[in-house]
User: Fold this.
Amino acid sequence: MARKPVLLFLIAACASAQVTIQVGGQPVGSPRNVLNFTNAAGASVSGIVQTCSEDRTRINCSSTYNSAFIATHDTVHENENYCNSTNGTSGYTCALPFKRLGSYRAGMTFLLTVDAPCATSCSLNVDGAGVVSLKKSDGLTDPAGMIAAGQPQWIFYDGKVFRLVAAGGAPSPGVEATATDSRGDVRARRLIGAMDTMTYGSSIALDVTAGDLHKLRTTNSSPTATINAATAGLEGQHMWIIVTNDQVSGKTIAFGEHFRSAGLLAGTAGKSATIQFVSDGTAWYEVTRTLNL
Assistant:
């Protein structure tokens, strides 16, 4: 009968035994006799979900995630979108670098780089998911030079075809089409710049952003005038100035700030003159002038 109290004491001692919790070998808090894994606010919203099970020797716990709360790689983006075609043809093919594409879905975007230009029509097959035509942004017109070798181009899948992003589509009725070739040159039927009319005076401010053609009509308010450009312009920018002299007397025009001219422009009463400049980004350089028009 003496053994019974001892046995009860041992059971009570074991039941009250405390466990030290460690994470990465470092103690967390003080010893406790209960370890609880919390699924905060319930598994329906919590990102991390704890699951435990018991075997003969221990209790095993593992962590999973709630995909409704934490987006997976496939949910955020079903593929890494760099598509590099190196087959030397306009029937482009590529394999995505990190995860194979299972199928196309509307809205998918890809950064396409090719080693052969698309002179007329072309197509793309990503990871063997199927051959799909490439079109301009209108979804109907063939690229016809819009895709150049070595130049990356964003495209997206609309559910039927791949469309070029920000590429020239079919023009609206009555609007001339403008396109860029593989060198980046612009092709268009007409390019009409705005004309700026300046007010004559002894000091004239020329706004280089007001247009590429500037017109000045002299008056008797001053026998001479100086034109000063507001800025040095952009590299490669051209500018033309038309000076129409009044009927009274010839006026002399000088070119001041931001100009590199061939000298004074001497006018003739009742005659006009034109002068052209080009910018290198630091100044406007005179190209040519025509007098007595």
